[in-house]
Amino acid sequence: MNANNYVVGVDFGTLSGRAVVVRVSDGAEVGSAVHEYAHGVIEEHLPGSSVRLGPDWALQSPQDWLDVLRFAVPSAISAAGVSPSQVVGVGTDFTACTVLPTTADGTPLCFETPSLPHAWPKLWKHHAAQAHADRINALAASRGEAWLPRYGGKISSEWEFAKGLQVLEEDPSVYERARRWIEAADWIVWQLTGVETRNVCTAGYKGIYQDGGYPSAEFLSALNPDFADFVHKLTVTEPSTPGAPVLAPLGGLAGRLTARAAEWTGLPEGIAVAVGNVDAHVTAAAADAVRPGQMVAIMGTSTCHVMPSDRLAEVPGMCGVVRDGIVPGLWGYEAGQSGVGDIFAWFVDNAVPSSYAQEAKARGLSIHEHLTGLAAAQAVGEHGLLALDWHNGNRSILVDHHLSGVIVGQTLATRPEDVYRALIEATAFGARLIVETFERSGVPVEEFVVAGGLLKNRFLMQVYADVLRRPLSVIGSEQGPALGSAVHAAVAAGAYEDIEQASAAMGKRTVAAYVPDDKAADAYDLLYAEYRRLHDLFADGDILHTLRRLRNAATGPGRPSIQGSEAGA
Ligand SMILES: Nc1ncnc2c1ncn2[C@@H]1O[C@H](COP(=O)(O)OP(=O)(O)O)[C@@H](O)[C@H]1O
Ligand SMILES: O=C(CO)[C@@H](O)[C@@H](O)COP(=O)(O)O
After folding, report:
1. Atom 19 (ligand 1): residue with closest C-alpha?
2. Inter-CA distances, 74 with 148, 260, 294, 406, Å
3. Could you tell me the CA-to-CA distances from 5 to 25, 53, 193, 310, 501 in Å, in that order?
4. Is residue 450 a contact partner of residue 474, using CB atoms and an 8 Å limit?
5. Locate the Carbohydrate kinase FGGY N-terminal domain: which residues (predicted)?
6. What angle do CA 480, 471, 444 make, to 5 degrees?
7. Whole-angstrom distance, CA of residue 166 vs CA of residue 114
8. Which ligand is closest in space to the CA of residue 296?
9. pTM exceeding the 0.80 threshold for the entire prediction
């Protein structure tokens, strides 16, 4: 193994893109850079336009993604102090399902018609297609579609089919012009190589690709006759077998860096480009956790739980089980919580008095660090609160993105740090319910490995160890997805035989970095029992869906407006 060879991993997260330069021989990260998306998450109105977006919309700009290639990659190479000629491959990963309509040559439709909301990429957290997902689930259940149990009995509004059906029914002109409906994970590889691919991971977890195919045209037509051709927008086919979808395997060589992409990135034209991947699933390789029973929780804006397994089982409320979905040769399970870091961000941005921010600044702490310090000083249960971590819907195990958050137990004495701690605990309880659901379904969770931006919160990590009553292993990188993409790049470049070998050489984790404290764990068991009762009380959505309907009616076109003196009456 040439110790002077490097690979570059590029992780496209929700708020920014991160590039890491990694030594092929041992996975040492020698340089990195971050590029914040200029448009961030587009939720209110289209960029440079007064066109307002509806509730639960979340879009992103393809130009922001291209800017990551143009700025973060060269900066990472510069920070690494290595010559670009030493770089033998590049790998990428993306949030998913982040999906966009394009022309046949991959041009995003929003570049052509920027004033049409449906022409823009729909970010993974776009939850405005829940009604479409409900229809897909109801029809699939009534017809006994074989693929439905592979997704725990429900497909998500976050995924390709619900979002595609929403475009068809809300803007048929965009649907008609879209020759491709493509995950950003595959679109960015297309930009780097000029080769259009569909990776097995997003196809399986987000595109309902199971047992060699997509849902039938007959099923799609029953949803909407004009939806029958949708699969053609998803599919890359071999010329020899027209119509048969061809998926690209993880760790495979998608193509080679084009001259245009070489100019963007400063990397050598012709180097290997790995098949695209999802930010969560690629992280398993970075943690050297690609064996059956190793659950990796990528904890950031959201949390994704990914786990290889040698057994196929129906696990209620999972995000999916896909053959070869994490590593070739094994089943790959995914579960998730669609709001974790985002919930903490919402709270500090909207519900904390400025005095806390001033105190944090005076102490040289972030507001998260300051609130965490105050919260950590409490005994378990001292705040008297309990929360449901559904502020961005529930991904597992209820798969309902029209659920919303719940906090009970507040009194006139409740302080911001009390609520902040209750929110942290609620996300831990949600994770425990996911782990218990796997184990009850016969899929053992042998090791719980943590990655992602929330690693920096040591108190939060200890809460998870106590609530889960199991040790937490911790990935040895602050850029897990980017390192994972670099591992895949090394395989694509031919430096390793397969992902397992590359992961063993380049991935890293500390086993049992956190161990449960029995006294705290006992106290959390009592709170968790109440969490399960609160969970089951609100799970059917009866109250929370009603609140959403009332909210949407109040903010809709015919909303009553109270002006002037009446407003304060
Ligand atoms: N000290 C902290 N404790 C808890 N949450 C934090 C802390 N610092 C940042 N966050 C949250 O972490 C999330 C960002 O996670 P990160 O993994 O960096 O991004 P991404 O999810 O885009 O990959 C944000 O939602 C932010 O609110
Ligand atoms: O859903 C998945 C993966 O399946 C994630 O890409 C999505 O939740 C976004 O993750 P982040 O929290 O932005 O890292």
Report:
1. 300
2. 43, 14, 34, 44
3. 8, 46, 21, 34, 17
4. yes
5. 6-205
6. 85
7. 18
8. 2
9. yes
- Measured from the CB, is residue 308 less than 6 Å from ligand 1? no
CA distance 387 to 406: 5
- Could you please report the per-residue DSSP string of 221-261? HHH-GGGTTHHHHH--B-TTSTT-B--BPTT-EEEE--HHH
Which bound ligand lies closest to the C-alpha atom of 300?
A: 1
| Integer Cα distance of 241 and 247 in angstroms | 13
Cβ proximity of 420 and 375 under 8 Å: yes
Measured between alpha carbons, how far is 270 from 259 in angstroms, rounded to an integer? Answer: 8
Sign, CA torsion 464/467/468/473? positive
Nearest CA to ligand 2 atom 4: 96
Q: Is 108 in the pocket of ligand 1 (CB under 6 A)?
A: no
Per-residue pLDDT of 60-69, as tens digits, reads 999 999 999 9
Can you tell me the distance from the alpha carbon of 251 to that of 492, in angstroms, rounded to the nearest whole number? 5
pLDDT in tens, 406-450: 999 999 999 999 999 999 999 999 999 999 999 999 999 999 999
The tokens 């031919």 sit on which residue? 494
Q: How far apart are CA 318 and CA 439, in angstroms?
A: 12
- Tens digit of each residue's pLDDT (9 = 90 or more) over 367-397: 999 999 999 999 999 999 999 999 999 999 9
| Sole residue written with tokens 């998730």 | 336
DSSP string computed for 394-414: B-SSS-BTT---EEE---TT-
Q: What tens digit of pLDDT does each residue of 336-379 get? A: 999 999 999 999 999 999 999 999 999 999 999 999 999 999 99
**Predicted complex ipTM:** 0.94
Contacts 24+ apart (CB under 8 A), 216-221: 219/139, 219/140, 219/143, 219/145
- Backbone φ, ψ for residue 132 (5° rounding): -70, -40
| Token pair for 52 | 């307002």
Q: Which of 302, 322, 392, 401 should be mutated for ligand 2, with most atoms under 8 A from CB?
A: 302
Amino acid, res. 36: E
